[in-house]
Please model this.
Amino acid sequence: MLVPKLYTLDDIDVGNKKVLVRVDFNVPIDVNGNILDDFRIRAHSQTLLSLLNRGAAVVVLSHQGRPGDSDFVTLENHAKKLEEVLGVEVRFVNDVMGPAACEAIQSLRHGEILLLDNVRLVSEELIEGEPERLAKTYLVRRLAPHFNYFVFDAFATAHRAQPSIVGFPAVLPSVIGYVMKRELEALDRLLSKGSLKVFVLGGAKVKDMIKVVELLAKKGIECKVITAGLVGLVFHVAKGGKVSNSISKLLEERGLAPLIAEAKKVLSLGIPIETPYDAKVLKADGSIAEEPLSSATGIPLDIGSYTASVFSEIIRSASVVVMKGTAGRVEDPRFRSGTIALLEAALKSSAYVVIGGGHISSMLSEVGVVREKGIHISTAGGALLMALAGEELPALKALELSYKRFFKVVPS
Ligand code: 3PG
Model:
């Protein structure tokens, strides 16, 4: 993938203008709906403050979680957090495109900021398609007429071709914000590093990670892939590894069983994939033990110490380490040690380290090694990996379309 040159918010005059900003405030949330880590919210502050200080009326749009998941919540707490981070009053309306939202947008004055509610409350937002088609959704048709500009700053969602990402650029002059600018610069540097990359893929977004591995294999990217978390469990089974009935049940319950066949197809492409050897498990009597994964009787909630040492050795041999997602259920302190061990191996190595995704980056402070140089802490997980695997990001394509349509000249 080539990183295109893009117009930024410094290239437009936003004074006395109404600006819609797509950010990614999708953050880790606990069972009570509290925000566990505000990294992504803080990341967008420079973009939002710059627009406010230059006299724009700023309306912010984001998603949080996916419908059906426990972290699919309203953005009311995000508004409070944003107010704290920006140090200015942040209005919030629990509506996305209905009368309350439209009225709040209309009454917003220059120098003021409003956060709309979770854009995925609108079911249309989950449609994926081409910019022209998604520009016809109600979401875009209702909101776009209120604005002079669209600022896209949500790099972490740039791999989704959804209305709030690709629909607005088709109908509004669009530029990127500072998060996008920083992330694209880092991506450009990373893509130009030809040396051996080690991808450490963990977490629960198994389908996305299988897609990433497939792209890496098909595009012939020189790399090694380490899998952990639920991703590791699915690849373990796909490789023919045995698991107990309780683990099979877990895979069923989490809707992951159908992905085993997809993982098998990807394995047949010949890319080397490491899977966990042992696991830290929670047993039926509530105790915790380390067991070989193939004979584990408890539920595996972290990698075991043998796996951590094998994976750490591979990480040490890399020139670039890209880590996405955690190795275990890190919300529970008893299952954080595997992720911490892998982060420590990466930070101690001489590799350039890229950390992607909210959960894992929030754990850096627990690692006993501090690194200031040779590290990029990305706001993104899936988007970064897709781009590194050579996939075109729909958001970038939509922005280029917007330039041709509204600015007439594509930046050089
Ligand atoms: C992410 O966390 O990777 C982004 O916010 C995208 O979220 P999604 O995978 O639910 O589209």
In short: The pocket of 3-phosphoglyceric acid is lined by residues 24, 26, 66, 156-157, 160, 205, 381-382 (CB under 6 Å).
